[in-house]
Design a protein that fits this description.
alpha/beta, elongated, Tscrpt_reg_LuxR_C, DNA-binding, DNA binding, Sig_transdc_resp-reg_C-effctor
């Protein structure tokens, strides 16, 4: 299984977006690991502000844990070294700014269903929305993604998620 290593240097909105991207492809983001097994699509979310916290993150990655690192409070040399070390282990998704416009939770829910093959009507039903509300959320997501049509919006949304490995892979 290829593990995700995501290091975020931007603000809380980009961190929340990265967390939502991980969830969208099937990862379960947790704040701490219990003594149980460390498999099954778990990603550890932790802040890294200094070298000690970076070492904890690195050792977790070596032990086979996916990471979502909030490095917004860390000094440059700490972030650079952590990123270099994580690249030696696997693929790193290093986010220093938004990877495109940030979709809100409602827009993301509609896009997740559409990207999974649902029709807009089925997505509206699944989300307990009127068709008109679902259409407004889709239109907003299309505008944020810079897509002239629904198919282009779905393709753009899928491209955003392609950089993250799936838990089953």
């Amino acid at each position: 299984m290829t593990l995700p290593f995501v290091v975020v240097e931007a603000g809380p909105a980009v961190l929340a977006d990265a967390r939502a991207d991980l969830r969208a492809v099937g990862w379960h983001v947790v704040g701490r690991l219990d003594d149980g097994p460390r498999s099954g699509g778990l990603v550890l979310a932790l802040p890294v502000a200094d070298e000690d916290a970076a070492a904890v993150a690195l050792f977790s990655a070596i032990e086979g844990v996916g990471l979502l690192v909030d490095a917004s409070a860390a000094e440059r040399h700490v972030v650079d070294r952590l990123c270099d070390d994580l690249r030696r282990i696997g693929h790193l998704d290093h986010r220093v700014s938004a990877a495109g416009p940030l979709l809100d939770e409602e827009e993301r829910a509609v896009m997740d269903l559409l990207a999974g093959g649902s029709t807009l009507g089925a997505a509206a039903t699944a989300l307990h929305l009127s068709r008109r509300s679902a259409d407004r959320r889709l239109a907003s997501a299309r505008a944020k993604l810079g897509a002239p049509a629904t198919g282009a919006a779905i393709a753009a949304y899928r491209r955003r998620l392609e950089r993250l490995p799936h838990p089953s892979a």
